[in-house]
């Protein structure tokens, strides 16, 4: 959406039924994606959220204030046309998940990582049948093949809209386990985000906060919450699977 230079020309944005789902109309005309595809989304709730974003625009359209519309565009124009590649990329995070690589010292940081990350790994083991191996330091540690297969199945079962949400959750947090925990509503989004930042928070406490880094972290946190909201608008649960797949 960065190429948009659109000025407001419409009076009313409305959610409307469309073939295959719902869309948004501007004074009766259906909105298109940047690639000129039909902006058809899976739920009325998502269409209502997009309509509210369009109605909130003033003289010039600012895509930065339209996270639901941006995510829906990405799902249609990008993720849907390369679903397998996106799913494969996200599943690969399971082989090098943030939660598996622990500090060797100091003891306080080690303890914080254990307290924040061990319960998430226990959840992945029990709920997803995906136990993972932890290590100290940054040297790669192989993960059980059955765990990687379980992750792959979870990710590939998601439809393009749900997969778009998961993409942002995983890439922002650096953890497939945290992303899956978010879409399964295992813990609140804010809690999961803080658990993804154990190392950064430790560094800030030791050396002080850099304002530029802090602002980048705030933007990422907002985007993480936006992705959780977008996933909820897909249907509300991790069962938002592609046709022909078992529910996640």
Please provide a written account of the structure.
This protein has 248 residues and is mostly helical. The chain has ten helices and five strands, in the order βββαααβαβαααααα. Strands 1-2-3 form a three-stranded antiparallel β-sheet. Mean pLDDT is 92; it is low at 237-241 and 243-248.
Highlighted features:
53% helix; two-stranded parallel sheet; mainly alpha; disordered C terminus; 10 helices; three-stranded antiparallel sheet; globular
In short:
With 248 residues, this protein is mostly helical.
User: What characteristic shape results from the CA principal axes?
Assistant: globular
In terms of structural class, how would the helical and strand content be classed?
Answer: mainly alpha
- What fraction of the residues are assigned to beta strands by DSSP? 5-15%
Low-confidence stretches: 237-241, 243-248
* Rg, Cα atoms, Å: 20 Å
H/E element sequence? EEEHHHEHEHHHHHH
**Helical segment count:** 10
Strand line-up in the sheet with most strands: 1-2-3
List the helices and strands and how they pair.
Elements: E1 13-18, E2 21-26, E3 29-30, H1 44-55, H2 67-79, H3 83-91, E4 101-102, H4 107-128, E5 135-136, H5 145-156, H6 160-173, H7 176-183, H8 189-196, H9 198-207, H10 211-234
Helix pairs in contact: 2-6, 3-5, 3-6, 6-7, 6-10
